[in-house]
Predict the structure.
Amino acid sequence: MSNFDPNAIIRGAQLTIVGALRALQNPGLFKYEHYRQAAIAVCAGVSIRLAIALPIIGVKALLWFLSLFFNFEAATWDDRVVGGLDFLANSVLQVPFFLMTLMRYITPTLDEMFMDSLQWVDQTYYQKHKSEDPRNLRATYYPNLRLYSAYGETSGRRTPYDAAVMFLMRFGRRAGISLGIYMLSYLPVVGRFVLPAASFYTFNKAVGPLPATVIFGTGIFLPRRYLVVFLQSYFSSRGLMRELLEPYFSRIRFTKEQKRRWFRDREGLLFGFGAGFTLFMKIPILGVLIYGIAEASTAYLITKITDPPPSPAYGKEFAETQVRWTNKHEFLKLPLANLDAHNIETEAPGQDPVHTGELQGKKFT
């Protein structure tokens, strides 16, 4: 089965809805601190829209001033300039997405939201299955994961400033590549093949040469704007998932190679999960709030694609065991109403692990 299997993408999209509904049922999501952060998020959303709109407003003001001396009524280039700037900011450089993800490095709220939501997922799981034998239930995630430092080992600890700088470098590199490809697409003769070739290169590794060739052939006849939106939606989904999973990876320390393999083995499901939230995040102003819901929903996602973590003393060995998603085929075949299935039994006695902090009961394979 390809890692980019359609079933995996559909299941990821389903988890977007289920995870969001689970997150919204958490009363802790609406406690005072989160209300305050929600207000800040709305203000940030307004600021983001203004930051994007100001240059465009400036260009419109300049064009209006020039229209006092020149007749623009028969011209259309001024409308194309304004529309092009808006498209460049939102679809090519993706400034709103950049500013929303940058908030993670300014305030720890998203990390706290992830951990609070993970605790809520554990509690609702045991509440839902309270009539069943505790020995047949999965182990909890929150009690042990909260014991891990959110900054990893002390010797390798990065300050929020360093993390923000690394994020800016990553985004700057992606934005530079996107802008370069977009500009190359305007070259005479070969320009029409630039975006289809970029699509083929991107999807060849993910879905194989045959589907990538179909995308290349289709892309030759599609308008440039549609191809840009298609490519950037794909990269936005990937980038969003890496940011949403940061609270998990900041605690469970994977090597660079282990992390690459971890994402590769789950890329179809992660794309489906991230694409849904990427679409919702395009809603003006409310997109910032949706980002918070996406972070809370990721806590639910983690319980479906990873094993419950052991104590920090076994963290390094645990990371290698998580690279392969061993119950992928079984999980993708599950009906939507039975997503808690496919655990394996352990010999631990049945207790209430949500309150004892012990890793009892079943464990994901």
In short: The radius of gyration is 23 Å. The mean pLDDT is 76. The chain has 17 helices and no strands.
